[in-house]
Amino acid sequence: MSGKNYQNPEALEINALENAIYMGMKNDLSFLIDDRLSLYEHQSTVNPNMPLRLSDLYTVKTKEVQLELTAVLLNINRNHNRELMEACQDLKDYAEYVDRVRKYAREQPLSEAVECAITECIREGILKEFLEKNRAEVKKMSIYEYDQEKHIRMERQDAWEDGIKEGEVRGAEQQLSKIIKNMMKKGRSISQIAEELGETEDRIQELIGKYDLEG
Fold this sequence. Notes:
This protein is mainly α.
């Protein structure tokens, strides 16, 4: 990330919790080296690579910023940020593993997809040592993470579909109210309108009041 190549592992102080490779469950990565504190957080949703400045979120804008924080978002999915991936083999392997889980999950049950991805990656030397040592936990956490990601996508899709349905219902209701208004202008009674439209009198009264059709 910084373009530097440190050789002394003793100079690196890890602050993150153990097994920080898991996204969303624990703080991802925090370490201190060369008097610089680095914090890395994994995002499960798609973001373009862009800097986010803390001062941009202030309610009251000031000319002189007293506290500033800039974070750079990087897409670490497979085939993105190739230069970064080539500089960190573990990160590249992790992206490959996640991509295979997603690919196989489109064709078979999630548990089988994860098992297949783990077995294949070990066979091909992708995160081999880590996966062999932590196979059971990796499988458990991968299933949880993928389900969480899928749940978020489904919630967004449901919200979108609910919005469409709500718009359709509102549109149909407004069209019905126009018909009721025209029938009222022709002298039809509430009972006549209800009978001709196949609605209850209470429903007709509700729409008359809601859209102020008597006004």
